[in-house]
Amino acid sequence: MNQPVCLISGVGPGTGAALTRRFAEGGYRTAMLARNASRLAELERTITGAKGYVCDVTDERAVNATVAAIGQDMGAPSILIHNAVGGTFGSFMDIDPADLQRNFDINTMGLLYLARACAPAMIKAGSGVILASGNTSALRGKPDFAAFAPTKAAQRILAESMARTLGPQGIHVAYVLIDAVIDLAWTRKMLPDKPDDYFIQPAAIADTAYQIAHQDRCAWSFNVEVRPFGEVW
Asked: What is the pTM of this model?
């Protein structure tokens, strides 16, 4: 119980797993949240100090119960990373409105529920870190992103509001904006002609997140953008 605890939501085979490995390498016990129990069990076997918790971040009661269980099993998280993401695409005339609501529940309400569950212990300790993984949809509404961009914009603004509230209490809140296609099996299949350096590597995202989580409090970042060197922006 002497090691610090990092809670990571949306742990899958890409960025979530990379974040788990990076913080485990940095000396943290990692609490992994996902809806897929078998995926969590596999990562538990391969990452030292990692423990999986099946949790739907859109369910406030489930989030509260899970964070309480993590506190009993591992200790209160000193770092929270909201990496779970809901993404459905199409123009505003084509989308199912229920998809926008679902994305909002995962991206924005999930951040709210997790932060509200974890922040009290951080406030009591006078320190802590809350990171949200975002992307350029938080800054612009492209034609086929009508069900996604509004939810990421709301997520970023929520994080900024949290940062202004929690920063003076010693808790660092930051938004990591990923302007890139993440290197995953399904993105490679979707873009088979793209070279390796077109993609951003999950391990590189995780390295950046780790650095942000350990910034000196005299030089905290909020908006942090990461993109491949060749990305047009």
From this structure: 0.96
